[in-house]
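The data are quoted verbatim here:
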Amino acid sequence: MNAIAYHLDPLHGLAGLTVRDQELPEPGPNQVVIEVRAASLNRRDLMLMDGIYPLPATPDIIPLSDGVGEVIAVGANVTRAALGDRVTASYFVRYVSGPQRLAHVAEQYGANYHGMLATYAVIEEDSVVHVPEHLTDVEAATLTCAGVVAWAALTTPVPVRPEQTVLTVGTGAVALFGVQHAKMLGARVISITSGPDKAERLRKLGADETIDRNETRDWDEKVRELTDGNGVEHVVEAVGLPTLSKSVRSAGYNAMITMIGASQLPKGQTLENPFVGPYLGIRRIAVGSREDFEAMNRTITEHRMRPVVDRIFPLDQAVEAYRYFRDDNPFGKVVVTMS
């Protein structure tokens, strides 16, 4: 079998994503080697390529944090994985549990540790996560980034309760996972989207109510109407500053608004004071820990949940996968398969 790996030079954008031959790696004493079966893209991968991600990409790095494969070699000290296991890696190389520290976020697969867009990947034992058995390789390859950050948004520091209402803003992968996770936790879900087709797909995914922001400009008022004027308890704000003011006005007393990622205001738009109105919390989070990932997987297994996949590309079309992900507004994850 011809082993290949893509390497990223962030100074050259898509032109910097080049393929090379790959030798079979030898694991260190606390590492495992997997034969990758599938990998998927996240918005952070575009940011790394464009040089705007908070952690710069190391030149010549193998990209993508998300992927799944079979363990084909284990280091001498490894106890958390065995030959033949189907595993993925946590987003942060050494963030196992507890409060997130700056040192945790400084080590990331696909940024300064080689990632998953290759025939083989080397994973530190602390990062190893076994994936739900009922998921296909394509589905299991979508969980690491968007899945876990949406899970952390809804379960930390206090999990969503069944009697609560969650608002999801946007239809990117994090928002879609937010809908699915909130429903697994028993909550009511209201989703903001842009068009009847996406609204219908969100309802099929589990959203109890959808609001088309193109038809209902003041969607915050509609959210409050749907909640008898009380507002929602949780907001998964996956768009960012452009919609934050409306998210605040949609929130109820002591609500939690979780900002995912980073964004800039459109030219000419101003941000209202978010702390006028009900008492609430606003936070911006990164992807959760390995223990968060494992807790999410247990719930996914219990509910037999399946992630949303938009399109699958073969490995030799990885550059096209990036281009499609960047330009075509996918609904769900874009996945690259290795065979």
In short: The first strand starts at residue 4 and ends at 8.
